[in-house]
Specification:
heterodimer; A: about 1100 residues; alpha/beta; five-stranded parallel sheet; 47 helices; elongated; B: about 270 residues; seven-stranded mixed sheet; 11 helices; 7 strands; about 45% helix; about 15% strand
């Protein structure tokens, strides 16, 4: 039952609808009853610059000329259309056939599965909830893809020598840039990079097809050593499949040059001859014949398996005759004659060589190892089916797949023009000379396509989000039209323009992309109905020389980012931050909107009244730009770039992981400028307010806070004064000694007061790798710095670099730097000296606005952990092990007299005193080890760490473990120590922290509890507090942000429980109340503001 | 271009020294696998590290399923890297699949290599007549289908097996890198590896080779090392490593580094 056209149209996007309409028109013209997929194909091919046509052009096999093959395709489509039954009466609207409708349905499903469009789809849904979910508009790309699935269609394509799977591939991997410029030179990638022979390179060897045959063909094309001898178990098979391939007429594996080559197999004759059959005369005749056949493109003499010649059964003389005849043949007809053979093992060949030592030279042989039998198509098919099955595991795909396609696919399928080939060679030369320096060209080539993509994507999205309600679709259509128009113009211009005088190393990557920028800009301007001033300018970019183009770039990068960060510093930002994550569009717009409120902004130019939000942002961009770059002479050109850079920033924020490489470099570029701006804008916090703020957060580290405030305020005020020109904008502090919690809190307070939000704390704990990850630890939220979440496949250095490029205004909080790996050590020392933080690939990020806080339990000069003066009852190590146990009160009667001390009837039972089983014992074991020595702990932890965590990289801790007793480990630790000392000398300030006085706190808390206890029970009853409980309470006090939180807990929670216990048990004088932990059950409900249970169980 | 390649495959050059040493990682790992032994060689060699295109640390989009159907494409990459870096002589250490790649590279450009050190190398993993590669075709198919069905489970099972030695950290590290690979790529590469057979070409290798073989390796039986020694065309030695597993550089770095240093100095 066919579907009506209007119904089908509803399922398609505008672009696809147009195709459908064309298809319907084709069907109508031919007075067919239904519109089928074939009509759609015909319509698609009819369009002058259709995706399908382009894909076909790239997927076609190189054996035929493109025009020929296209004509064949048209013919074959035409013939097939003719065969369709025509209806008796002409219909206005031939209905959509079931097969075509099924194709639409398939593409809908496909699109829904496709992660990239899913996102878009999702967003559209969010923004237009009124829109019904069921209508998912099919994009043209998916539409074409599913039409190609139609077996009927693929047969038609097949008749014209196209494989529909190749075409599909070509559609999926489009050369993105080609929309903007057709003549972009092909970057050469992983394949054929070093082929110095230009003839070979120009072949454009198709990557598809049988890999082995392709390699054989490559050898045949060589000037010397052009006769391949295949080696390997699969050599004979490979030879056979190559011969088949050639006889079939080339196939996709063979380059054009070999077209027309014929293969003559003499294996059987030789075999017969050397085994005693046939006469020398006959054989000689055969070879003579061969010589005569050497006409046209030439012949390949296929010797087949060389085994025949080296077999033991072969007659020596006969073999010599064959060899000498062949040698002569090669000498005579070397130009037009190839010899090839295969050897299953090297031994076969070497045996032959042993008898004819000069064979290799005489026959001009080239050994070619064949290691795989598999025709590539097998592998490919298995891949595609696989991809389908892995889609639900989308999480594995580390990058959104669309990002690099432009990059990598563009590499495969271009045929390069001569000019660019030259440039390419020069570039290679430059690179080879200069080693591995990263050229600017690369940077741009990498970053821009994604940016362009983004910009492109954005028009769609922007409109979607803009919610200009009424003319949304109209605007979109308009933009699309304009886009198309400018595409054409651009393309036209570009093709006419053979790059006048391009800087060689930048040429290919830069020009097209720069053009893209302007292009986007101008399109935008068009849509805001302000075309006149720049109308002619859009043609400009392609005429300008690259240096010219390049100039606006770095400048604009500088402009954009600081503006962004200024607003961050302004307090508006804190309100915004909540909303930022909601959608990318908002994220991009808010900062711009807020810049509007900045006082010294020049009034936005007259087109503020335009219809869409997109254009409003353009204008704002314009405004700020004028405000900040008045000295720039040719500023009229800037808004364009500016605008696109806005998109660029969008792409930075959304795709940072994928493009972290290039963003980081971008940031580095912008740094100098932003440093200056920040200094001017943010009010440098004076010492007093800084001190007060920190003091509020961490009251117990007075001295440390004093020196921290001094260091920070000092640096920052001088930063403001000197405008950041010569000033080192980064501040380095080390927090040494104990008090992990205090250090962290100070760092986060610093982030809060200096950069406005706690979010700007980048925190990494080097020590986290070799610490047992205890579940339910009280310090759990702090340990999130661990490797699990953040460091998937990244080194610490890369993580920090990535974060820094996202938010350069941050406090970088690196804990336990003494455990840092050598890479991090180098990076850090370099950063402290140069102000640039290098990641593991050597890319540098400026840290001019960053405060580095580095902690170590080791104080300067000594490698020992600071021990307390006297053995403390509650050590920091012990407290750090606290867990969030539920607590309970037990009431027991004791026969004997409980000893009473200090007039208090509350005491802490020591760890050995309590009787506990199971898991506790294990912990106790560690405990005792701990008291024996630090090494013990480490070992104990090792033992308990048998779980498998995929995300944790194993670090040198293991090495030390293994190296135990090896002299290497000593030197390593020595190195680390030396480094640490050197490093500490370079930082701005070394702040030594005091140990947190847990014992005093414990005393105070005990007193509190005792007071409450006596109030409830009188002085007769005893209370025993389990050591573990005490540890827990202390940890809570240490962690709590608010003073007196624990006291409150004691008053409220504990007191209530005491009262309950009193009511329930009426304990007598002999009673002992025990406050103990419930082993194995953890706190479910926390008391307000403190990490302690809200209720205590009573037994 | 050149640097695109270098960047794409995360090529790193470390250390100071006259001689060049290439460390090529095997299947399921990336260059971080050498981290533990790197410091033992940086003082004496210019060490070149790179990631195979199938490694998890390389952008999966670079992996062209049409191109990397045989090991030759990987060989291209290796040779291109060496050319871009301007290396004319180097010692090559290759683990598992990289050992195969090294063999093929040295056939193609014998002048480039002074020495091949093959770790956990096998010319063919499947059994054949008169050849014991350690795997039956059926077993391999089963493994591959398991891999396809549930990659994570497969990783969790395969990693400890492969590491062999009881070193949880090595298992974890190997699992991490293995898990970083995109499953489809991982499967595709395993197919490529299992479909490869280098036996016929070993004789073409003229570069002296050292085969480092651990006492027990699930992937490579001891007989394979002997086979390699007998069939490789150059001057060959076999070094026994007194540890278990397919990844000695991960599970016993100290031992491995010492052995490797000795192998390279000879």
């Amino acid at each position: 039952m066919p579907t009506s056209v209007s119904l089908a149209r509803q399922c398609l996007t505008e672009e696809a609808v147009r195709v459908l309409d064309d298809a319907v028109a084709v069907a109508r013209r031919r007075s067919h009853a239904q519109t089928t997929s074939l009509h759609a194909v015909s319509a698609l091919l009819g369009l002058p610059s259709s995706t399908l046509r382009e894909a076909c052009a790239r997927a076609r096999c190189s054996a035929y000329s493109p025009r020929l093959q296209f004509r064949a395709l048209e013919l074959s489509v035409g013939v097939s259309l003719d065969r369709l039954p025509s209806s008796s009466r002409a219909l206005d609207e031939p209905q959509v056939s079931n097969s075509l409708m099924a194709a639409i349905k398939r593409s809908q499903a496909n699109q829904r599965r496709h992660p990239e469009s899913f996102h878009l789809h999702h967003q559209i849904l969010q923004n237009n909830p009124q829109q019904t979910t069921s209508v998912l508009k099919v994009e043209l790309k998916h539409f074409i893809l599913s039409i190609l699935d139609d077996p009927f269609v693929s047969r038609v394509f097949g008749e014209a020598g196209f494989r529909s799977c190749d075409i599909k591939l070509a559609i999926i991997h489009p050369p993105m840039v080609s929309r903007f410029s057709r003549t972009r030179c092909p970057p050469v990638f992983l394949c054929n990079l070093t082929d110095s022979d230009p003839a070979r390179r120009s072949l454009g060897l198709e990557v598809s097809g049988d890999e082995n045959s392709r390699r054989i063909a490559q050898v045949l094309l060589r000037k010397s050593g052009k006769n391949p001898v295949l080696f390997g178990v699969y050599a004979v098979d490979a030879l056979r499949s190559f011969v088949e391939c050639v006889n079939k007429g080339g196939g996709s594996a063979l380059p054009n040059e070999l077209f027309g080559l014929s293969v003559i197999c003499v294996e059987s004759e030789i075999s017969e001859f050397v085994n005693g059959g046939g006469s020398e005369e006959k054989m000689g005749l055969r070879f003579k014949e061969l010589g005569e056949q050497c006409l046209g493109p030439g012949i390949v003499v296929n010797l087949g398996d060389l085994m025949t010649l080296s077999e033991d059964g072969a007659f020596g003389e006969a073999v010599s005759f064959v060899v000498s005849q062949l040698t002569r043949l090669v000498e005579l007809h070397g130009e037009r004659l190839w010899v090839m053979g295969a050897a299953g093992t090297y031994e076969t060949y070497s045996k032959l060589l042993g008898r004819f030592p000069s064979l290799e030279k005489d026959w001009d042989l080239h050994p070619l190892p064949i290691t795989s039998s598999k025709p590539s198509s097998d592998g490919f098919c298995s891949k595609s089916s696989l991809l389908g099955s892995f889609v639900p595991l989308g999480g594995f795909f580390s990058t959104p797949s669309d990002f690099t396609y432009p990059f990598s696919s563009a590499n495969q399928s271009f045929s390069r023009c001569k000019r660019c080939t030259e440039k390419y060679e020069q570039d290679v030369a430059v690179i080879q000379k200069g080693g591995s320096t990263i050229s600017v060209a690369d940077q741009h080539s990498e970053s821009l396509p994604s940016c362009l993509r983004m910009a492109e994507l954005d028009t769609g999205e922007g409109v979607g989000v803009a919610k200009t309600k009424d003319d949304e679709t109209m605007l979109k259509a308009k933009i699309l039209q304009l886009q198309k128009k400018w595409n054409d113009t651009c393309q036209h211009l570009h093709q006419a323009q053979p790059f006048p005088k391009l800087d060689i190393s930048h040429a290919w990557s830069q020009v097209p992309s720069a053009e893209g920028f302007h292009f986007v800009a101008n399109r935008k301007e068009r849509s805001s109905k302000d075309s006149s001033p720049n109308g002619s300018q859009c043609a400009d970019p392609s005429h300008r020389t690259p240096t010219d183009l390049q100039k606006p770039f770095p400048l604009k990068q500088n402009m954009q980012l600081p503006v962004d960060s200024d607003t961050e510093n302004a307090n508006i930002q804190s309100k915004l931050i909540v909303k930022v994550s909601r959608s990318q569009q908002i994220e991009m717009e808010r900062p711009w909107l807020s810049t509007n409120s900045m006082p010294n902004m020049s009034p936005p130019p007259d087109h503020t009244s335009s219809s869409s939000v997109t254009s409003v942002t353009t204008d704002l961009g314009l405004g700020t730009l004028y405000a900040s770059t008045s000295q720039e002479p040719d500023s009229p050109k800037l808004p364009g770039c500016k605008e696109s850079l806005q998109h660029f920033s969008g792409s930075i924020s959304t795709k940072v992981d994928a493009v972290s490489g290039n963003t980081s470099r971008q940031i580095a570029h912008s740094s100098s400028c932003s440093g200056a701006n920040m200094g001017g804008q943010s009010d440098p916090r004076d010492f007093k307010s800084l001190w007060r703020f920190l003091r509020e957060k961490v009251c117990w580290q007075e001295e440390a806070i004093c020196s921290i405030s001094e260091a920070v305020s000092c640096s920052r005020s001088s930063n403001g004064r000197r405008g950041g020109s010569s000033f080192k904008g980064h501040i380095w502090l080390t927090f040494l000694g104990p008090d992990k919690v205090g250090k962290r809190r100070i760092a986060s307070a610093l982030a809060e007061i200096v950069f406005g939000t706690r979010e700007s704390l980048i925190s990494v704990d080097f020590g986290s790798q070799d610490r047992v990850c205890q579940s339910n630890s009280m310090f759990e939220h702090q340990e999130l710095d661990g490797y699990d979440v953040k460091f998937r496949a990244k080194t610490v250095v890369d993580y920090v670099a990535g974060e820094l490029s996202k938010k350069p205004h941050s406090v970088v909080f690196l804990q336990n730097v003494d455990k840092a790996d050598p890479l991090a050590q180098t990076s850090l020392s370099q950063a402290v000296r140069t102000g640039k933080f290098a990641d593991s690939h050597g890319r540098e990020i400026s840290i001019n606005n960053t405060i580095f806080v580095i902690t170590s339990t080791i104080t300067k000069g000594t490698r020992t952990v600071l021990p307390g003066k006297e053995p403390m009852e509650f050590s920091e190590e012990r407290i750090l092990k606290a867990k969030r146990y539920q607590m309970q009160i037990l009431v027991e009667h004791v026969a004997g007299d409980a000893s009473r001390s200090n007039g208090m009837n509350v005491r802490v039972t020591l760890k050995n005193g309590t009787s506990n089983a199971g898991s506790v014992n294990k912990r106790k074991l560690i405990e005792t080890c701990d008291s024996e020595g630090h090494m013990g702990t480490v070992r104990a932890q090792k033992v308990s760490r048998s779980y498998l965590d995929l995300n944790l990289p194993v670090e040198e801790e293991l090495e030390e473990n293994i190296n135990c007793g090896d002299c290497d480990s000593d030197s390593i630790s020595e190195n680390s120590e030396a480094w640490l000392e050197g490093f500490f000398e370079q930082v701005d300030d070394n702040v030594v922290f005091k140990p947190f006085d847990f014992d005093a706190l414990a005393g105070k808390i005990m007193k509190d509890i005792s007071l409450q206890f006596q109030r409830t029970f009188g002085s007769e009853v005893m209370l025993e507090i389990d050591y573990e409980v005490m540890v827990q309470i202390l940890a809570a006090a240490w962690l709590s942000e608010r003073n007196g939180a624990v006291e409150e807990w004691v008053e409220q929670v504990l007191c209530r429980s005491f009262a309950e216990a009193q009511q329930k048990h009426h304990p007598s004088a002999q009673s002992v109340l025990k406050l103990v932990t419930c082993e194995g059950s953890f706190v479910e409900e926390h008391a307000s503001g403190v990490c302690l249970p809200a209720t205590i169980n009573l037994k | 271009m050149g640097s695109t390649l270098l960047e794409a495959l995360n090529v790193r050059v470390e250390g100071s020294g006259q001689k060049v040493l290439v460390l090529a990682h095997g299947f399921g790992t990336d260059q971080s696998v050498w981290q533990r032994i790197l410091s033992s060689f940086t003082p004496y060699y210019r060490v070149i590290l790179y990631d195979l295109v199938c490694a998890g640390s390389v952008n999966p989009d670079y992996f062209d399923f049409r191109r990397y159907t045989t090991l030759d494409a990987y060989v291209d990459d290796l040779l291109n890297i060496l050319d871009v870096l301007g290396v004319d002589r180097c010692a090559y250490v290759g683990h598992s699949v990289s050992a195969m790649i090294g063999i093929l590279a040295s056939i193609r450009r014998p002048e480039l290599f002074t020495k091949l050190v093959l770790v956990g190398a096998s010319p063919r993993f499947l059994n054949d007549r008169d050849y014991h590669g350690g795997f039956e075709r059926g077993e391999v198919e089963e493994v591959l289908s398991k891999m396809e069905a549930n990659y994570e489970a497969w990783v969790n099972g395969y990693a400890p097996l492969s590491v062999g030695a009881d070193v949880p950290d090595a298992v974890r590290e190997f699992s991490r890198t293995l898990f970083n690979m995109r499953p489809d790529i991982s499967l595709f590469v395993s197919r490529t590896i299992f479909n490869s057979d280098l036996r016929g070409v070993l004789g073409l290798v003229k570069v002296p080779s050292c085969i480092i073989q651990t006492a027990r390796d699930v992937s490579v039986p001891a007989s394979v090392a002997t086979y390699l020694k007998d069939h490789l065309g150059g001057r060959n030695t076999v070094e026994e490593l007194h540890t278990d597993g397919h990844l000695p550089h991960l599970s016993a770095p100290t031992l491995f580094a010492a052995k490797l240093r000795r192998a390279l100095s000879r």
